[in-house]
Amino acid sequence: MQAITDLKDLLQVQLQALYSAEMQISKAMPQVIMKVNHSSLQNALTHHSGLTELQLERLAKVMQILGGVEQLSEQPINKGIKGILEEITDLLAEDLSKEVNDAAIIAGIQKIEHYEITCYGTALTYAQQLKSHKAEALLHETLQEEYDADDLLTQLAKSAMNKEALPRLEPEQDTVNDEHVSSDDEYLKKSEKVSISERTINSPGGRAGRSHRGYNSGESRGH
C-alpha cells in the first residue's frame, strides 16, 4: 500500500476501497435479484445495479484528477462489503417465508447502501477540503444515486413489503392492543404508495429523485 501522508493520499485509499466495493457488489447482486419476489423491488435493484459501470468510471476519473499513479482494481478486497454480502447470503439461505423474503432483502441491501453513503460522503468531504471541484462533482453525483436508491428501498419497504411480513395477531391481542393497532393502521394508510416504473426510477422528479438532494455528506436513514 502507498504511504499515507496527507488528506489527498487518504482520499486515494478511499477511492480504491470504493472501487473494490462496487466490483464485489456488482458480482453479488444478480444472485440476490434472482431471489426477489416483487417485480417493483426487482426493477429497482436492477436499475441501480445498472449504474455500477458509470460509478466505476467516475471513481477512475477522480483518481486521475488527483494524480493517482495506481490503477484502481478489485484488490484488495473491501472487507466491510465482504462481511455485509456474507451476512445477506447467510440470511437468504435460511428458510424464509415468501412474505418475509423481500423485506429481508431490502434490509440487507440498505446495509450496503448505508455503507456506500458513508464512504462516498467521506470522499466527497475530502474532495471539498482539497478544493478539487471536478472530483467533488463526480463524487456528489454518485452519492446522490446512493441516496436515491436508499430512499426508494425505504418507500418500498414501508408501503408493501414490511406490511406483508407483519405477524397476525390473535383476536384477544387485537382487543388488548386496540389503540396501538388502530394507530399503526392509520400510519400505514398515510404511507406513500409506490408504483415502480421507468419514469419513477429514472426521472429526477420521481420519488427516488427528491428526498436527499439537499445532503452533502454521508448521512443516511433506514426504515
Could you write a compact summary of the structure shown?
Helix content is 70%, strand content 0%. By secondary structure, it is mostly helical. The protein has a single domain, classed as Ferritin.
Structure characterization notes:
Helices cover 70% and strands 0% of the residues. With 223 residues, it is mainly α. It has a single domain (7-209), classed as Ferritin.
Structural class from helices and strands? mainly alpha
The description of the largest β-sheet is: none
Mean pLDDT across every amino acid position: 81
Taking all Cα atoms into account, the compactness measure Rg is: 20 Å
Helix content: 55-70%
Q: What letter string, H or E per element, gives the SSE order?
A: HHHHHHHHH
In angstroms, what separates the terminal alpha carbons? Answer: 38 Å
CATH superfamily, called what?
Ferritin, core subunit, four-helix bundle
Basic shape: elongated
What name does the CATH topology carry? Answer: Ferritin
Q: How many independent structural domains?
A: 1
How many strand segments? Answer: 0
**Annotation field: number of helices:** 9
Would you identify the regions where 5 or more consecutive residues have pLDDT less than 50?
Answer: 180-184, 190-215, 219-223
CATH architecture name? Up-down Bundle
Strand coverage percent: under 5%
The CATH C-level name is Mainly Alpha
